[in-house]
Design goal:
The protein has 394 residues and is an alpha/beta fold. The chain has helices at residues 12-22, 47-59, 72-83, 99-114, 129-137, 156-163, 188-201, 218-221, 223-231, 265-279, 286-296, 298-330, 337-340, 352-362, 381-392; strands spanning 29-30, 92-98, 119-124, 140-145, 147-148, 153-154, 171-175, 204-209, 234-240, 252-259, 345-347, 364-365, 371-373. Helix content is 46%, strand content 15%. The strands form four sheets. It has a seven-stranded mixed beta sheet, sandwiched between helices.
């Protein structure tokens, strides 16, 4: 049996991680991996997480299974974080998942069960795991224009034009904020126009919100998904706590199915529990319980939100400094988009050859399409990147 297996395409980011580790240069810079790092290059455990974990350790009395869909308290806490009071609780079915990736996978399987002929529309570009999972499941897929490689901004007219050709019942996968890999985001006005198009074309939104709090703040970053929840008959939301709570390895995610017709919620809830059972049975609970404790305790929540704001402001400061130094060195405003983008990522606009030259000559590691993790920079490494960019002729 095993002799019939074929090698699968290597994950480019994992390959980049391996190459970075093998590079002996002390001056090397990792801008590839999508993990937040502080100025010391460390992914810290947030203060509120540490406190909640200590409280949990002292109070926990069992490691028995949680429910198939996870704990209701976690559902409530995450619904509050992502949707606030946008929709009634009885309109939202939810299931805990192993990270945001698990939520995306479960959401796609739900779509496959409910509407196997639906096409999943993805932004061009998008997070590589989106098309990878869709292809693996054998689902139909199409792209809509999103990123303008020349301006490094949003091709909104192209987006609307392409989505206008989708058929009723198709699913549109949208990034809730901090678009990965480009950092270019929809404005509130554009979210409204997208919502109007989805409604008129009878398209189903599926929002991947993995970076809430990393862009313009916890409330602002959720504006788009909340507007859709208010205006669309039904939608799916996949949310991750990996970034904004820093619990990457604890795999904390949630899939929510929103239906304005609350009568559908009971069936949706049973279906989400069924899908969990088929894929991994019971979801992990430690990280989800920590997140629940933080969001349910006013003191812990305030401390968490304050530290998250420090992280957000720090990344924005790095963006502004990088943009300013490139403007000075290049004597051009062509890098102004770096200060305008939000979240951890931006596309620099370099060719694969230029990316390779920066790796070879300066030890700068970024994905071949020039997506870079802004959080991988610090005060000392920004001038190194600026020198590399100018030398490469980007």
């Amino acid at each position: 049996m095993f002799e019939t297996l074929q090698a699968q395409p290597a994950d480019k980011i994992l390959a980049l991680m391996a190459a970075y580790k093998e590079d002996p240069r002390d001056t090397k810079i990792d801008l590839g991996v999508g993990v937040y790092k502080n100025a010391a290059g460390v992914t810290p455990i947030m203060r509120a997480v540490k406190t909640a974990e200590k409280q949990l350790w002292e109070a926990e009395t069992t490691k028995s299974y949680t429910g198939l869909a996870g704990e209701a308290d976690f559902h409530d806490a995450m619904r509050g974080l992502v949707l606030n009071a946008t929709v009634r609780a009885e309109c939202v079915a939810a299931a805990a998942t192993p990270g945001g990736t698990g939520a995306i996978r479960q959401g796609l399987e739900l779509i496959q069960m409910a509407s196997p002929d639906a096409t999943i529309w993805l932004s061009a570009p998008t997070w590589p795991n989106h098309p990878s999972i869709i292809r693996y499941l054998g689902m139909k897929m199409a792209e809509y224009r999103y990123f303008d490689a020349d301006t490094r901004g949003l091709d909104f007219n192209g987006m609307l034009t392409d989505l206008s050709s989708a058929k009723p019942g198709d699913v549109v996968l949208l990034h809730g904020c901090c678009h990965n890999p480009t950092g270019a985001n929809l404005t509130s006005q554009q979210w409204q126009e997208v919502a109007d198009l989805l409604l008129s074309k009878q398209l189903i939104p599926f929002v991947d919100i993995a970076y809430q709090g990393f862009g313009d703040g916890l409330e602002a970053d959720a504006w788009g998904v909340r507007h859709l929840a208010k205006t669309q008959p039904e939608m799916l939301i996949g949310a991750s706590c990996s970034k904004n709570f820093g619990v990457y390895r604890d795999r904390v995610g949630i899939l929510m199915a929103v239906a304005q017709d609350a009568a559908k919620t009971a069936l949706n809830q049973k279906t989400l529990a069924f899908l969990n059972r088929q894929n991994f049975s019971f979801p992990p609970d430690h990280g989800a319980r920590v997140v629940t404790m933080i969001l349910s305790d006013p003191v812990l929540k305030a401390d968490w939100a304050a530290e998250l704001e420090e992280v957000r402001a720090g990344m924005l400061k790095l963006r502004q400094k990088l943009s300013q130094q490139l403007r000075f060195r290049a004597k051009s405003d062509r890098f102004g988009f770096l200060a305008e983008h939000r979240g951890m990522f931006s596309r620099l606009g370099a060719s694969p050859e230029q990316v390779e030259a920066m790796r070879k000559n300066h030890g700068i590691y970024m994905v071949g399409d020039s997506r870079m993790n802004i959080a991988g920079l610090n005060e000392a490494s920004i001038p190194v990147l600026v020198d590399a960019v100018i030398e490469a002729g980007i």
